[in-house]
Amino acid sequence: MSKEALVEEFGISNLKSLCFPYSVVHMIVVVGFPSKSGECAPCFGFRSVIISQIIFYFILEDFVFYWGHRTLHTKWLYKHVHSIHHEYATPFGLTSEYAHPAEILFLGFATVVGPALTGPHLFTLWLWMILRVLETVEAHSGYHFPWSPSNFLPLYGGADFHDYHHRVLYTKSGNYASTFVYMDWLFGTDKGYRKLKAVEEVEGKNY
């Protein structure tokens, strides 16, 4: 695909910007992953390895998922594959796993690529899978609770962020990332959502 086609389809004018998530991932790998001797420098202990790997998985998954999900919102793939998931304009928890089999395989790659690269302990793998399922169920729950992660974790999207994605149909919905909001902000695919939140904030102050 040519640079002009990328700009037209995805709004990417500088391909170097794609390297940003990789630089973050590289920093985490260097700082937190264990050496061949089994020690984790400068962190020590099993818990430090687990935490560093889980953080790595979330960042890498979010990056891969964003581009995979955005690709599914191109005309042909949306019509024949991704539209099944969007049958629910107001999703609930179980709809997080309601999708075309091809989509499950396609986007599921984003979840398994991190563990595939690092070969984690079985406990870490199960913990990652549990956290990932809980995250996607929460994002599709339709509820913003006082204890929702978005109230405590910076850049976390949550149900409100993903609800907007389901409410705006077809290719221009935006909010494509799975967990965090920085990818959509970086590539300008959350402009509609941010504009809506600004209007709601102004209207809220007027009442």
From TrEMBL:
<dbReference type="GO" id="GO:0005506">
    <property type="term" value="F:iron ion binding"/>
</dbReference>
<keyword id="KW-0472">Membrane</keyword>
<dbReference type="Pfam" id="PF04116">
    <property type="entry name" value="FA_hydroxylase"/>
</dbReference>
<dbReference type="InterPro" id="IPR050307">
    <property type="entry name" value="Sterol_Desaturase_Related"/>
</dbReference>
<feature type="domain" description="Fatty acid hydroxylase">
    <location>
        <begin position="55"/>
        <end position="189"/>
    </location>
</feature>
<keyword id="KW-0256">Endoplasmic reticulum</keyword>
<dbReference type="GO" id="GO:0071771">
    <property type="term" value="F:aldehyde oxygenase (deformylating) activity"/>
</dbReference>
<keyword id="KW-0456">Lyase</keyword>
<feature type="transmembrane region" description="Helical">
    <location>
        <begin position="12"/>
        <end position="33"/>
    </location>
</feature>
<dbReference type="GO" id="GO:0016491">
    <property type="term" value="F:oxidoreductase activity"/>
</dbReference>
<dbReference type="GO" id="GO:0008610">
    <property type="term" value="P:lipid biosynthetic process"/>
</dbReference>
<feature type="transmembrane region" description="Helical">
    <location>
        <begin position="104"/>
        <end position="128"/>
    </location>
</feature>
<dbReference type="GO" id="GO:0005789">
    <property type="term" value="C:endoplasmic reticulum membrane"/>
</dbReference>
<comment type="similarity">
    <text>Belongs to the sterol desaturase family.</text>
</comment>
<keyword id="KW-0812">Transmembrane</keyword>
<dbReference type="InterPro" id="IPR006694">
    <property type="entry name" value="Fatty_acid_hydroxylase"/>
</dbReference>
<keyword id="KW-1133">Transmembrane helix</keyword>
<protein>
    <recommendedName>
        <fullName>aldehyde oxygenase (deformylating)</fullName>
        <ecNumber>4.1.99.5</ecNumber>
    </recommendedName>
</protein>
<feature type="transmembrane region" description="Helical">
    <location>
        <begin position="45"/>
        <end position="67"/>
    </location>
</feature>
